[in-house]
Design goal:
Number of domains: 1
Oligomer: single chain
Mean pLDDT: 83
Strand content: under 5%
Number of helices: 9
Number of strands: 0
Order of helices and strands: HHHHHHHHH
Radius of gyration: 19 Å
Helix content: over 70%
Distance between the termini: 39 Å
Largest sheet: none
Shape: globular
């Protein structure tokens, strides 16, 4: 295993172990907030650094370079959301308001990461015949219907302020986009050097969507707590996306340029 990958893996494993141990160790709430917030933020920062470094490898003139940069920028917004969340809990020591500045940054991830995943999709060597178009259409529709039934429908009927209701729908909508793009890419991706990094990045975004939906579910049920398994899934998601971006390489540039775009 490459030393850089090993360092990233060990940091992610340490963060997960630290978060899990909070369930067994009686610690002050502030300590828990610091472990969870910093654990996620450190992994995100490393993954973002890897992403921007790899984007420079491909240059911003290429679709893959722009894709990695946009995904990294989206994750950077999520990290800023974490830091804002830590400010409320650790520095101000108040209950995080909803909506808050943290939500502004968290939601900022959606447009950038979505654009990045779209550019990944454009790099696939795929002929967009009727069967492919049907496959691309079915997956988002199926994901939307399932997510709407499980998460969005109940949020629309809640008696809450309009802005809160918008955010309650915006979060699962972002998850729908992530899961749809990721699943479409996984179903269309072929072999070659692009397979492993693209597949790992997509897996990371699926984990991100799962963590986000699990967070929404447990919050609604009143069972979420800082340091819960949901937080470990977030760490695993950011680690996985960073790992996928790391596995992009100089050798992939030749293959990426040789792949025709679907029309």
């Amino acid at each position: 295993m490459d030393k850089k990958v090993l360092v990233l893996f060990l940091l992610a494993a340490s963060s997960v172990c630290g978060i899990i141990s909070l369930s067994f160790l009686k610690q002050p709430p502030v300590f828990t907030y610091i472990v969870v917030g910093l654990g996620q933020s450190v992994i995100i920062l490393i993954s973002v650094t890897i992403g921007f470094y790899r984007a420079r490898t491909f240059t911003m003139k290429s679709a893959i370079g722009r894709s990695l940069a946009l995904v990294s920028l989206g994750m950077l917004f999520w990290m800023l959301g974490n830091l804002a969340w830590m400010y409320y809990n650790v520095a101000a020591q108040i209950e995080v308001p909803y909506p808050s500045m943290a939500d502004v940054f968290y939601l900022g991830m959606i447009p950038f990461a979505t654009a990045g995943l779209f550019l990944l999709l454009r790099n696939l060597k795929t002929r967009f015949d009727a069967g492919t178009v049907l496959k691309i259409a079915i997956i988002p529709v199926a994901v939307f219907l399932l997510t709407y039934w499980l998460f969005v429908q109940s949020k629309l009927s809640e008696d809450v302020p309009t802005l809160t209701k918008i955010l309650n729908v915006a979060y699962p909508s972002g998850d729908i986009i992530f899961m749809s793009f990721a699943l479409v890419i996984l179903t269309l991706i072929g072999g070659g050097r692009l397979f492993r990094p693209f597949a790992i990045i997509c897996l990371g975004f699926i984990l991100q969507a799962v963590a986000d939906l699990a967070f929404s579910w447990t919050i609604s049920a009143g069972t979420y707590y800082t340091g819960s398994p949901v937080d470990t899934i977030y760490v695993m998601a950011f680690f996985t996306v960073g790992l996928g971006m790391y596995y992009t390489s100089d050798a992939m540039k030749v293959e990426a340029k040789s792949r025709p775009r679907g029309t």
